[in-house]
Amino acid sequence: MQGILYEEPTIWLFLLVTVAMGGWAAWMTGRAVAITWRPPVQLVIYTAILGLVIRFIHFALFEATLLSAHYYIADTIVLFAFSFAGWRYNRARQMTTQYRWLYERTGPFTWRAREST
Q: How far apart are CA 16 and CA 50, in angstroms?
């Protein structure tokens, strides 16, 4: 996995910075976009910026390569997965709480139209 997802000597640095710290920030980004009723297309822009921030943290703290397209793309894909999951989770919650007479929750990320009684 080293060289494909991360360039640090251990996977723990990748898990700490990209998955834990970046994942939390990406989840909150997805939450913010969902709460303001914005489309998921905006997640791409915000996650791309967040990917730059995560690359800078890798560079500043762990002497990783700052301008590496390969690792930037790898980090951004992981961050986008978290941000889209956060967006979808909060959108499902919104749809089922604000329009509870129309929709019911079927899972943490999904909802469906209620059946007419």
A: 15
In a domain, 66, yes or no: yes
Name the token pair of 95: 């749809």
pLDDT classification of 75: cutoffs 50, 70, 90: very high
**Bridge partner residues of 2 (DSSP):** 6
Does residue 5 belong to any structural domain of this protein?
no
Residue 3 within any structural domain of the chain: no
| Side chain identity, residue 22 | G
Residue 4 lies in a domain: no
Q: At what angle do helices 23-35 and 41-62 cross, to 10 degrees?
A: 160
**Single pTM value for the model:** 0.88
Distance CA 91, CA 77 (A): 21
Whether residue 5 is predicted with pLDDT greater than 90 in this model: the reply is: no
